[in-house]
Amino acid sequence: MNNIGVLMTCPMLEYLEKQLEARFKLFKAWNLSSSKPDFFKKHSNSIKAVVGDTTVGADAALIDSLPNLEIVASYSVGLDKIDLEKCKEKGINVTNTPDVLTDDVADLCIGLALAVLRKICVCDQFVKSGNWINGDLGLASKFSGKSVGIVGLGRIGSAIAKRSEAFNCHISYHSRSEKPNTNYKYYSNIVDLAANCQILIVACALTEETHHIVNRKVIDALGPKGILINIGRGAHVDEPELVSALLEGRLGGAGLDVFENEPDVPEELLALENVVLVPHVGSDTEETSKAMADLVISNLEAHFKGEALLTPVT
Amino acid sequence: MESIGVLMACPMNPYLEQELHKRFNLHRFWKVPEKSAFLTAHSNSIRAVVGNASAGADANLIEALPKLEIVASFSVGLDKIDLAKCKEKGIRVTNTPDVLTEDVADLAIALMLAVLRKLCESDRYVRSGKWKKGKYMLTTKFTGKRVGIIGLGRIGMAIAKRAEAFSCPISYHSRTEKPEAKYKYYPNVVELAANCDILVVACSLTEETRHIINRKVIDAMGPKGVLINVGRGPHVDEPELVSALVEGRLGGAGLDVFEHEPEVPEELFGLDNVVLLPHVGSGTVETRKAMADLVLGNLEAHFLKKPLLTPVV
Fold first, then answer.
1. Which of A14, A103, A234, B145 could potentially form a cystine with A260 if both were Cys, beta carbons 3.0 to 4.6 Å apart?
2. Contact A301, A1 (CB under 8 A)
3. Which residues does the UniProt record annotate as the domain D-isomer specific 2-hydroxyacid dehydrogenase catalytic (chain A) (predicted)?
4. Is B180 among the catalytic positions?
5. Is A222 exposed, middle or buried (0-12, 13-18, 19+ CB in 10 A)?
6. What value does the CA radius of gyration of chain B take, rounded to a whole number of Å?
């Protein structure tokens, strides 16, 4: 398969790069040997696969520029950076990396909730700056027993619910349709969910419908003691609304792994003690990134051998 | 009861202080300039001491208060109280179990997640603007890691229950095996340490458990092992822990307690695999109120000659 052209859209993981180089003819979009137009003139016909991620995927323009594109293998579970319509239209296969990253993202979600409520980062900073000898910090908020509202009860949402239950949290959720076989309370609209929980968690896919699903109304319903945790996509939240709510004390706190314009983070958040901000690390562990990379490789190999794809997106 | 003298050992909670002041004749020990003179002057009127994890009732204090009837601790830990002396003199002792179990267990899990996923470090990374220059490093997965718990009491069991939801295999060491617990028992700490990825201290501090985490245990944990301490600072040989972390012989640590609080070894401040908290295990608004109410409830019960709510002695 060493003459099959594969285009990697951006740096993601060295291990994945090396594996792709060993098996295919790898082109790195961020490190082209010639200008972009020259590159495409020379190589576009030989590129049969694109490997993208949450930063750079495969939009209509890219797909149209690669006439022999057969498969887009995403190094992510989220598909918001791929023009799925166009792929369907052209019969291009799409794969992603579900399941292998579910635990890590759910773990991060709980980590963020605990960090916000128990002021973990504030406390760590307090001790490491030598301030403890001058007196204690104020009291934090209990996590166990709080009511948790999850937007999107897919693999990740369910994993978050399972973990929260061990902390005696009451679980409720909102999704496009009610899920049978759960004991969790369903809310058909997100404002009602927000009004009835203390910790609201975004864990759904980003689509046209869920863009800015957390808006002013939802933030108002969540209220001055409410906490928002976003481990979905930055675009799920109306970021300027979120920022003013936090600054004005209309929202109790937030734990955010994603932002509308990564890696830019609203400056006003940087000074707040009731927010925890992490750089889109939901699945960024050694174990999971290797598992994701292996899944990308396996999907590509299966495709080019004419075998069944492991994790196709339908 | 306003004539009953109650000695509060140190500042611990404004609400508790206020309520004690309302109901009793409250003496704030930390405001007393000449402590022995004070004790002599008030030895006949002080019938209760309210202590906590920092200051309790040692033999000297007990001896100086001949009318002492009850020591009510604003903590579940009893290491600052001379229990033998209390028993000898018929002095009742109460603590605050159960109401703080969840908070301490939550904190243990928070520390595990914060250490393995480098939450505080990556939050600092974002705040310092470094994310604009490049991605943060890969960290370590928490789900599925083997968790070893020292002490399977209320807090240890609550930690186990939470860790199980993250598919962590649980094992433990305690003075005696608990057959009702379906977790693997190790009769000694070194074996437990050698067979887990994250070792949590959740037992009470006694003469036997002082420095239960020593060089041998740290060696058994190894360069990938993570220590979580939500017990007491003296459970750990602190200098040994510090050199192991500085030299990379231990993978990381999440510590809520230290041998000489509020002093913390400065060598730990620059390590990115260490999370340090200022003894906040039960430090939530909800729990401290519940603890305060329990202290007040125990004192009232005692002086009204009713059964104590949470007696130890």
1. A234
2. yes
3. 27-313
4. no
5. buried
6. 21
Annotated active-site residue in A233, A236, A239, A241: A233
Q: Give residues 248 to 277 of A whose Cβ lies within 8 Å of B.
A: 262-265, 270, 276-277
The reported pLDDT for the residue numbered A5 is: 97
Q: Please provide the size of chain A in residues.
A: 314
Burial of B11 (0-12, 13-18, 19+ CB in 10 A): middle
CA B69 to chain centre: 26
Question: Distance (Å, rounded) from C-alpha A219 to C-alpha B118?
Answer: 28
Burial A6-16, CB ≥16 within 10 A → b, else e: bbbbbbbbeeb
Query: Tokens 């094992």 label which residue?
Result: B171
| Residue A275: strand, helix, or coil | strand
Burial class (CB in 10 A: 0-12, 13-18, 19+), A304: middle
Alpha helices in A118-215 (DSSP H): 120-128, 155-165, 190-195
User: How many Cβ pairs closer than 8 A exist between chain A and B?
Assistant: 168
User: Given this model, what pLDDT does residue A236 score?
Assistant: 98
Other beta carbons within 10 angstroms of residue B128's beta carbon come to 11
Pairing label, strands A199-202, A227-230: parallel
pLDDT at A165 over 90: yes
CA atoms of B142 and B1, how far apart (whole Å): 52
Active site residue A170: no
Who's near A205: CB < 8 A, 6+ residues apart?
Answer: A78, A79, A80, A152, A154, A232
B123 and A277 Cβ atoms separated by less than 8 Å: yes
The Cα–Cα gap between B205 and B188 comes to 17
Preceding amide of A263 cis, omega within 30: yes
Residues 57-76 of A with CB under 8 A from B: none
**pLDDT confidence band for A1 (50 / 70 / 90):** confident
Chosen from B54, B106, B258, B266 to mutate, greatest number of chain A CBs within 10 A: B106
| Cβ partners under 8 Å of residue A196, min gap 6 | A147, A149, A172, A185, A187
Q: Which of A102, A109, A123 to mutate to test the interface with B (most CBs of B within 10 A)?
A: A123
Cα–Cα distance for residue pair B137/B121, rounded to 1 Å? 10
R_g of chain A, CA atoms, integer Å:
21
Mean pLDDT by 10-residue block, N- to C-terminus, for chain B (313 residues)? 94 97 97 94 96 96 97 97 97 97 98 98 98 97 98 98 98 94 96 98 97 98 98 98 98 98 98 98 98 98 98 93
Share of chain B above pLDDT 90, in %: 98
Q: What is the pTM of this model?
A: 0.96
Euclidean distance between CA atoms B215 and A230, whole angstroms: 41
Distance between CA atoms of B26 and B11, rounded to whole angstroms? 12
Quote the tokens at residue A30. Answer: 């961020």
